[in-house]
Amino acid sequence: MQLKLDGSAVTHCGKVRSVNEDAICDCPQANVWAVADGMGGHAKGEWASSVIAASLAEGPVGDDFEAACHALADRIHAANRTIFAESQSRGEQMGSTVVALHVRDDRFAVIWVGDSRAYLLRDRQLYQLTVDHSRVQDMVEQGLLDPAEAENHAMRNMLSRAVGVMEEVQVDIVADWTVAGDVFLLCSDGLTCLLGNDEIARVLTERRTDGAVATLLDMVLERGAPDNVSIVAIDVGEATQLQAKQTDTNRMESGAPDAGTAP
Q1: What distance, in Å, lies between the first and last C-alpha atoms of the chain?
Q2: Which of 95, 128, 107, 106 shows the shortest CA–CA distance to 23?
Q3: Rounded to an integer, what is the distance from CA 100 to the centroid of its chain?
Q4: Residue 21's closest CA among 110, 136, 98?
Q5: Residues forming a β-bridge with 34
């Protein structure tokens, strides 16, 4: 069953930086949303993130869920090659994080590289769907650092993986089922470095997508916004009766089986 999706997105330079190196992909027609956080300084980071956003927005990804997930990962790989080639040509390092969401029928996938994050709010509980590709997270996983210390660690902004930095990049994917009432949040670290999970959960619980995005941005700006910030929120709602009937009819006509195991 195709659930009803309602998304809202914003990106802001913040109050300290003069250039916004973040970029967003807002493609509801393909059920694809993404946030990319550029690195490399000024035009280089801005260009790198825009390459990723444009690649993810290239067009439809198809009706097959698993094939669509891999197509989006392939687009990130293609952006990696473009950014890395430009970096080599200039003799300057540039790159970007990315976190993307795809929803098809009642399944979702999150695809990411770096420390931009995806969250799921379900039954008023906030779950982080991504694991940061950062030096600090590597230390946590190796048992060298307590998770409680990670958020404020001096090396928290040092990435262990990013798009465009190396000739090849590993892209992570997690997939699961979604239900009406879910709220997804994609964001750059300009949000999470200033707001805690409890604050984010409260806003997503109390506001609809437009209001939630606006409120979260206002909170970041009120706290000084030292970094660029990008926020995308997607509400999952019940399918209308007509949508449900059309989906059931299409399934009967095609004889298609239920979706299989997520990639």
Answers
A1: 19
A2: 95
A3: 4
A4: 98
A5: 25, 100
Which residues are registered as beta bridge partners of 37?
Answer: 22, 97
Contact criterion met (CB below 8 Å) for 150 and 135: no
**At 102, which CATH number?**
3.60.40.10
At 195 the three-state DSSP class reads: coil
- Would you say residue 239 lies in a domain? yes
Sign (positive/negative) of CA torsion 194, 16, 188, 151?
negative
Q: Give the domain extent around 183.
A: 4-254
Phi, psi values for residue 9, rounded to 5°? -140, 150
Of 53, 51, 49, nearest to 37 by C-alpha is: 49
Please compute Rg for the chain using Cα positions: 18
How is residue 234 written in tokens?
């997607």
Helix (H, G, I), strand (E, B) or coil at 154: coil
The helix/strand count (H/E) of the chain reads as 8, 10
Alpha helices in 20-167 (DSSP H): 42-56, 65-90, 135-141, 147-150
By C-alpha distance, which of 257, 258, 232, 246 is closest to 11?
232
Please tell me the pTM assigned to this model: 0.86
CA atoms within 13 A on the CB side of 36: 29
- pLDDT tens digit sequence for 189-222: 999 999 999 999 999 999 989 999 999 999 999 9
**Domain count within the chain:** 1
pLDDT over threshold 50, residue 170:
yes
